[in-house]
Write a structure and sequence with these properties.
Elements (H helix, E strand, L loop, with lengths): L2 H25 L8 H11 L1 E4 L1 H9 L4 H10 L1 E2 L5 E2 L4 E6 L7 E7 L3 E9 L2
Parallel strand pairs: 1-6
Antiparallel strand pairs: 2-4, 3-4, 4-5, 5-6
Helix pairs in contact: 2-4
Length: about 120
């Protein structure tokens, strides 16, 4: 077979394969968290979150709910270079993106729990 004869078979198979992959992966809630920032944020999101009293009072003062914290943990930016290693935990500073750019949180990421220790809101 020449290249011209094989090309339609290849393109047909490629098209069918792409359709099948899109069909199966489209139904799943598949995420591709390969970067260090995305892996860290996913790791924190999957753990139980415990809010400090200071954070709860700040959220109440500024009338912000915990869904905003969840949004920051979904698409925020973690400062990976200035992390602080504690006993069994690592402390990170995470800043929101876009409309939440003025909110920063300090998270202590432990083995099974994430402690939201401080929230900073800049006006």
């Amino acid at each position: 077979m020449t290249f011209k004869q094989r090309l339609p078979f290849f393109l047909g198979g490629l098209t069918v394969g792409i359709i099948i992959v899109v069909f199966f992966l489209g139904k799943k809630n598949t995420t591709f968290d390969y970067g260090p920032n995305a892996r860290l944020l996913k790791n924190i999101r999957l753990k139980e979150r415990i809010f400090s009293n200071e954070v709860l009072s700040t959220l109440k003062t500024f009338e912000i709910d915990t869904a905003t914290i969840s949004q920051i943990l979904k698409d925020g930016g973690a400062d990976m270079w200035n992390k602080v290693k504690l006993d069994t935990c690592i402390q990170y500073s995470i800043t929101g993106n876009n409309e939440l750019k003025h909110i920063s949180i300090i998270v202590k990421n432990c083995d099974s729990v994430a402690f939201i220790e401080k929230i900073t809101i800049q006006k």
